[in-house]
Amino acid sequence: MKSNNPGVLRLVLRVLQGVLIGVGAVLPGISGGVLCVVFGIYKPVMELLSDPFHKFKTHVPKLLPVIIGGGIGFLGVAKILAFFLETYPDPSVCLFIGLITGMLPSLFREAGEQGRPAGSWVSLGAAFAVILALLISLGLFSVTIAPSFGWYLFCGFCLALSVIAPGMSFSTLLMPLGLYTPFVDGLGSLDFSVLIPAGIGAVVTVILLAKAVDALFDRFYPYAFHAIIGIVIAATIMIVPVGTFFATPAAGVVNIVCIVAGIAAALALDRFNQSIPVQDD
User: Fold this and answer.
1) Rounded to two decimals, what is the model's pTM?
2) List of residues 6+ apart from 208 with CB closer than 8 A
3) How does pLDDT run across 145-168, given as a tens digit for each residue?
4) Chain centre distance of CA 149
5) What is the Cα–Cα distance from 60 to 157, expressed in whole angstroms?
6) How far apart are CA 74 and CA 30, in angstroms?
């Protein structure tokens, strides 16, 4: 009975991680790929996406709880989160800022698994600078586009990109274009006029890019992973609600408490994750 306990705990943890990944994918500025990285499942996810036929038997059983949790988080919790994000936008975002910040130690630990050459810090700094500049420039232009089949294809591309390229949140790309709200609403209400083109765009993106990204990690692991850390830090900085963080003294206190709570939850989750024995494949 005792030996079954770690397996059950790991299963529950994986489902919970999937829920958080799905939830994070919906929130503006958060990338589902970032949370895949900080939960230590980005590499197997990429291996499965880049070679689904050969990796199906070995990877799907391990990732199935995460996939189920992701579906629950993305579709089931999307509308609830939308309510909190609209009603309490700053505290909601601050909680996720704390979560990602608290996961940075585990991210650095994973990045150093194959050593930490000097060039890895260069790749971190370069990725940070490029993504920060890109996100700032996206924020400077506010263009509204009428949703259509073609634009929902683009939404699917952005959604897949947010998993394949951690730090690239699809909401960050879609919000300046006015596509974020109709896209998420369409997903949440299972609108096939949104789901079909978005699904096509996502699948095509995965087919074209997943293998290349997986090969990049196989050959240049420390450089690629440190670049991801740079992307994560840049993306997290960009969602800090600077203008309204201290709108009132009370609001500032609430936002700080949410960040601290997120950090504490992330550190506790990481500690819990490490305490569960890893099962041999």
Assistant:
1) 0.72
2) none
3) 788 999 999 999 988 888 887 666
4) 25
5) 23
6) 13
